[in-house]
Design a protein that fits this description.
Blueprint lengths: L2 E10 L21 E10 L2 E7 H4 L9 E4 L3 E5 L1 E3 L11 H8 L4 H6 L8 H6 L2 H17 L2 E7 L6 H16 L4 E9 L10 H18 L5 E6 L6 H13 L3 E6 L8 H4 L5 E4 L5 H7 L5 E4 L1 H6 L8 H7 L3 E3 L13 H12 L3 H8 L1 H6 L17 E5 L5 H4 L6 E6 L2 E2 L1
Parallel strand pairs: 1-4, 1-5, 6-7, 7-8, 8-9, 9-10, 10-11, 11-12, 12-13
Antiparallel strand pairs: 1-2, 2-3, 5-14, 14-15, 15-16
Helix pairs in contact: 5-6, 6-7, 7-8, 13-14
N-(iminomethyl)-L-glutamic acid binds next to loops.
Length: about 425
Amino acid sequence: MNILLTHAAQLLTLRGDRGWPEPRRGAQLRELGIIEDGAVLIAGGKVVAAGKTDEVARQELATNVEEIDCSHNVVLPGFVDSHTHPAFTAPRLIDFEKRIAGATYEEIAAAGGGIRASLGGVRESSQDELASHIVGALNEMADHGTATAEAKTGYGLNLEAEIKSLVAIRQAAEQWPGTVVPTLLGAHVVPPEYRENPDEYVRVVCETMIPAAAEHSLADFVDVFCERGAFTMEQARQILGCAVEHGLGVRAHVCQLAPAALEPLLAFNPASLDHMDFVSDEDIAILAKTDTVATLLPAANYFLGLASFPPARKLIDAGVAVALATDYNPGTAPTASMPFVLSLACTHMQMSPAEAITAATYNGACALRLQDRKGSLEPGKDADIAIFDADDYRELAYWFGVNRCRGTLLRGIRH
Ligand code: NIG
Ligand code: FE
């Protein structure tokens, strides 16, 4: 049956003036396309109309519908969480306590904790167990308004366990009505077996993992953690170059812990560069001229107890396309909540609530190159919709530590 959402206090359409292809920058980030007393008509999992309730309700397809009264609700495109690591099996509570006692993320990783501490669980678990953990994470995301999630591997770190993780992501995606974008992150860190010979591990990634992922269409993107303690810029270039040769999209974790020049990565036209805490002013100016999205992940800063956050204001004011995502993972960001990320963006990064919402929806879609289907509520787009108990969109970033998401539609299916 068709669905009609009616009487939204505010419907945020995020519709664009000039069609869809471009990520939003500068002042465009503040345009939410707000309609008061708004309605959305949905048929076949797609948006048919979005506008004033009295106009939309007059449409022919609006007869014999399931009506959802959205009075005192803000209705917006489902969040696009464009950076998550859900393919793990257990929380890292020892790391958590060590950090509380004063150790840093890098010190814990150097002592054998960190990403390497998640390997055993993934290598030993069955594909079904892994898939069921991932479905749990996806459902938790949808509870908080997310309709599209990127999902990285990166806790297997050998051919068998990385491919098992990708297949588990696909299995989970088949059980969840939302949209999942799989990413191979075989280059998360160098696993212990290759500690003495990291280049040999890069060869394993390039010669076995990437070809297998491409051949079986298991991944849309390849990611690399380009950082001290993980992979060098030269190794990252080899990995991304190999991904491009195999027809896969590319993205990278970069400038999370230390500065790095971005030009070698930009040569591969990455869909996004993520974290970006230590991006330089020169690279901000270069990025502003590209369609590569800077995906900021402030939940990681929060959870690591850092005093500084990614430089959102500088990036936005310079014209860089900025997105926000959770970074859902067991080491630095155990949260599935995009509303919490909105709160952090506003309270710690001086983003306005409107900028944060665009960064979490439309620009998140751009970071996954899905803006033709996701990120705004316009006829023909997927009916991915979040409904919040609020009269004003600013409340989405205002309340924190509680979940005000009343419901989520995933391609027209009620979560
Ligand atoms: O994005 N930076 C690398 N990857 C994750 C952390 C993963 C982990 O510690 O398990 C991040 O913060
Ligand atoms: Fe990450």
